[in-house]
Specification:
The protein is an alpha+beta fold and about 325 residues long. It has nine helices and five strands. It has a five-stranded mixed sheet. Strand 1, helix 8 and strand 2 form a beta-alpha-beta unit. The two termini are about 45 Å apart. Pfam families: DUF4118 (PF13493), HATPase_c (PF02518), HisKA_2 (PF07568). This is histidine kinase.
């Protein structure tokens, strides 16, 4: 059946088989006329059947009509004349037409059923491959998430010196793990492919502000659709979450309102740049990006994970600025 299906995809092959099988059927019937004297249509039925499998219903119908005319003229007695004996010839012609038509219809339905099965099999294979890819991606994301949590806990543990430190560190760890959970929930939302990274960032920041009880702080996000992997999006989101948390603690202290502007843009060299600015008083003393505070350690480690660098400063119009410079995607660490 697979061979017939392969041949049937070439229309010229179907017509070639029709011509060959009809010629073979006619020649065989002619050479063995004495043996098959009472079976004028036998070889032609085989030709119709084979053509149906290979060429489809149209070439098979042409073979059937040609066979009916040829057998009527050459093999129904008296041979070589257009005579019609009732009811003998009528019954013979009707039986041939019925059998040939049944063959063509049956093979046509069978071929369509086989094609449907092949299509469904191909769809099942594609679905299975997609499920395997999704499972592999899920495993990869879970592993990255666990690694990120382990890194955060390790950084938190390094700060513990007294029992009071342990309590504070645990509270801090709970907050950061909640942020990690929020990041994964937002970035792995199936709707992300439709709304883009910009919407995911905005929603993440709003979640953090609501959790901190700072509904009066507004946020604006500008992030065109740049190529970004889920792992990179997670690391960038961690940097954004830390910067927003620091702004809530320091830039908006004693204020009910405030604004955070976030830009994620391409650079001239093909890299990418993340810029976060608040409208607070800015840094009294701009800290070193490699400082010892946990927030800076988290942001710096996430930037290094992306193959980039972290920069801190004050904006000319006021407010603190956090900038992350990332290399072009092809130069980023694998």
């Amino acid at each position: 059946m697979a061979v017939f299906e392969s041949l049937g995809r070439k229309p010229w092959m179907g017509w070639a088989v029709a011509a060959i099988t009809f010629a073979a059927a006619f020649l065989t019937r002619y050479l063995f006329s004495d043996v098959m004297a009472g079976l004028p249509f036998l070889t032609f039925l085989l030709a119709v059947l084979l053509t149906s499998f290979v060429g489809g219903w149209l070439p098979a119908t042409v073979v059937a009509v040609a066979s009916l005319l040829s057998a009527s003229y050459f093999f129904l007695p008296p041979p070589g004349a257009w005579t019609f004996v009732w009811p003998r010839d009528a019954v013979a012609l009707a039986l041939f037409a019925a059998v040939a038509g049944s063959q063509i219809a049956l093979v046509h339905r069978l071929t369509k059923a086989m094609r449907r099965l092949e299509w469904k099999r191909a769809q099942m294979e594609a679905l299975r491959a997609s499920e395997q890819l999704m499972f592999s991606e899920l495993q990869h994301r879970i592993a990255n998430g666990i690694q990120l949590v382990a890194s955060l806990l390790s950084l938190e543990a390094a700060r513990v010196e007294t029992a009071e430190d342990a309590v504070a560190v645990l509270d801090d760890a709970v907050t950061r793990l909640s942020i990690v959970a929020t990041i994964h929930r937002r970035l792995h939302d199936p709707a992300l492919g439709e709304t883009g990274f910009e919407k995911a960032i905005e929603t993440l920041v709003r979640d953090i502000l609501v959790a901190a009880g700072r509904d009066g702080v507004t946020v604006s996000v500008t992030a065109p659709r740049l190529a970004i992997t889920p792992a990179d999006a997670t690391s960038l989101s961690m940097i954004i979450a830390e910067a927003v948390t620091n702004a809530v603690k320091h830039a908006f202290a004693g204020r009910e309102t405030g604004h955070i502007a976030i830009r994620f843009e391409a650079t001239a060299d093909g890299g990418r740049r993340l810029v976060l600015r608040d409208d607070g008083p800015g840094f009294e003393t701009v800290p070193d990006a490699d400082g010892e505070s946990l927030g800076l350690l988290v942001m710096s480690s996430m930037a290094q994970r992306l193959g980039g660098s972290l920069e801190l400063g004050n904006a000319a119009e006021g407010g603190a600025v956090v900038t992350v410079l990332l290399p072009p995607p092809e130069d980023a660490p694998g």
